[in-house]
């Protein structure tokens, strides 16, 4: 029994429905959705040729050129990919930019091959508009609570242990600080916005009466910008503050920015090249803080970092704790304390991670 085409965007995003994007690779790279695979009808070059033909000779000529370009072996190869996607994702859908000719052609060709597969009415453009509108409505209607605290007090871990939270750093694929870069890079701005809108949609549908917990962030997480409307709501929201002494914060930062970061680089590039990239990453990240650190302090911390990297390459990673401690104490802590005083009011609650988690869990239950 064939399934009908759909415009139930809420269900598509809440259920992580697999989707086949038939737009050209360049379109897909600029912005897409989670759980989506790009299996284009046309390559970028083919699409450009058809677009030029459409402008000069009209739709009929452009369609004829498209069929000429995507024919025989090329058509068969792409058809096999579409059919394999349909077999592997029997509950999925296909779409193009506006739900027009490209998705209709793919759908018809698949039907001719014996596979009736539904498409999404309105395509990418309608889904993107739906997410923008939904995000605006949800942000306006929701209550938020901000989790703040010194760098290294494991705020992200705490948030991820609670259901009514959104991990902005996870969506941005960045650890948030000057040292937060990750080897795989970050999503495009549009991909980040789409993922954030879907996360908000999930919270709104699953827990409409609970506050949404977010970590205290600046307007940029790496290169991903938090939407202005959400930033304004975050600035007005109550905060809870996680307290932790310096030593456990050094250890937490050591795990995140040394052990985990090195492992990610080596997973991506191999042992030797990964260590070189890891070393460059740390050195470059520190250099970006030079202006705020000031020349003398920067030179001191850089010397500690370089000593640590030399020792690390020889098998001893323990020296990293020295420069991490200096960065926390002399750079991040003063900056955080200034922001806490000047940007936030009196905290709603202050405690260690366990106390804050219990308070937030009880607040969620009461809400």
Keywords:
367 residues; alpha/beta; Oxidized Rhodanese, domain 1; four-stranded parallel β-sheet; 9 strands; globular
Secondary structure topology:
Blueprint lengths: L8 H6 L4 E3 L3 H6 L5 E3 L5 H14 L1 H11 L2 H17 L4 E3 L5 H12 L10 H19 L2 E6 L5 H6 L7 H5 L16 H18 L5 E4 L4 E2 L2 E2 L2 H9 L2 E4 L3 H24 L1 H17 L2 H4 L1 H19 L6 H24 L5 E3 L1 H14 L1
Parallel strand pairs: 1-2, 1-3, 4-5, 4-8, 8-9
Antiparallel strand pairs: 6-7
Q: Which residues sit in consecutive blocks of at least 5 with pLDDT less than 50?
A: none
H/E series = HEHEHHHEHHEHHHEEEHEHHHHHEH
The spatial strand order of the largest sheet comes to 5-4-8-9
Q: Helix- and strand-based class? A: alpha/beta
What's the pLDDT, averaged over the residues? 93
* Rounded radius of gyration (Å): 25 Å
Fraction in beta strands = 5-15%
Span between termini? 44 Å
What is the number of helices? 17
What is the molecular shape?
globular
Annotation, overall tally of beta strands = 9
Number of folding domains? 3
What does this structure look like?
The protein is built from 17 helices and nine strands. By secondary structure, it is α/β, with parallel strands linked by helices. The protein has three domains: 121 residues, Oxidized Rhodanese, domain 1, CATH 3.40.250.10; 123 residues, no CATH class; 86 residues, no CATH class. It has a four-stranded parallel β-sheet. It is globular. The two termini are 44 Å apart.
